[in-house]
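Hi all, long-time lurker, first post. I run a small reading group and we've been trying to get comfortable going from sequence to structure in the token notation. Rather than ask abstract questions, I figured I'd post a concrete chain and ask someone more experienced to write out its structure so we can walk through it together at our next meeting. Sequence below, copied exactly:
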Amino acid sequence: MNICVVGMGYVGLVTSACFSTKYNVMGIDIKKEIVDNLRKGGVHIYEPKLKEMIENSIQKGKLWFDTNLENAVLNSDIVFICVNTPSDSLGQYDLTYVLAVSEQIGKILSNKRGTTIVVCKSTLPPNGHKEVINIIKNNNPLDNWVYVSNPETLSEGTAIKDFMEPDRIILGTENQEVIDIMKKLYHSICSQTVYCVGKPIDAELAKLFSNTTLALRVGMVNEFSRIADKFSESDIGHILEMVCFDKRIGSSFMKPGPGYGGSCFPKDVEGLVHSANGVFSPILENLNYSNQVHQLAITDKIHSIIPKGVITVWGLTFKAGTDDIRDSPSITIMRQLVQFGYTIQLHDPMFKQLPDDLKSKVQVYKSKYDSLIDSQAVILLTDWQEYKDVDFQAVKESLKGNVIFDFRNMWYPLFVTSQGLNYYSLGKNYPFLAENLNRIEQI
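-- Answer (accepted) --
Happy to help. Here is the structure in token form:
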């Protein structure tokens, strides 16, 4: 079976790499520089194990990269559309790239024999499939293709595992023959999974409902952590243990942090609000606002303890395991800190570049300990493993001040405090101050 994957972003590249472990895959992208780099084994995004998988498949002759969409479609049984659907200026889905690719596919299919399955992994608004189907039909009078909605369910940082060991695979089509083909396709790389089948509209809504549900959990636990902060000696860690052992709730996405970000949650929440077809949805409409309020609350907490001066931020990406900084909470918080007049020193193990408006405002360091020099405090915003293994004695020696803001609740407060550092986090309402260490140990 030959597969064509269009769009070599996060979704397309992971899809290509994983399918190439069993099938012949042609990865297509319009940008020649990306294709040239991939042909050499270079990977323009960071995802654990992705580079190694791509190199291995190239060496085995299972994976190719090109800009020639026509050749790839004509020689493929299945074509996956994996191009970006960003938000426009109003927060609605911009389908420009998807529709442009669909138009090209339609024209190419008009000169092809045999049946081709066109699979859309790109996130679409409800009924977005109708636009894709119509534009293909308008450019191809032949009845030689079938459409399937198969939205991606990958999480950056664990995308390979998510693809190879999915909780479920969503298929939006009523064509039983195609359903069987898609099951066979996936079965060879992930034999133990559940197939959830419905119409294309069901698949589109399922993807959006999934992401907004996860965003809601993040938003709720962050609001809970701020509430817990207002009650003396409360501890969100203990509270969540008491809550999450309830099987109806569970622990997934129930950990305080600086808020959600990345390419999916903010966009899909806003996109679903605009696509709700007139339905009043106050929870969805305020979900991104709740996320923004939480980030402002973090900035206010920092400002109340360190009113001015030099501060260090550890972590730029929106989560560990990726180099993606789209809608990263770290960027939002740094912008707010800049407005307060702070001098910011930054470290991130996967640093590539800052947004243009922060390039002259933030000093970037290659060493996390060097980033602490002359700083009043360190603010943890991304939970990289490198930060979990930090030497707090080295932190104490490098800092000018002695304040730790752990906004991932990643470090053990008593240990940090025992090193002579003052510790602040989310949802723990008792001061982990070095001078109060004896009292804290009694709590």
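A couple of things your group might point at:
The chain has a mean pLDDT of 94.
The domain at 212-442 is CATH 3.40.50.720 (Rossmann fold).
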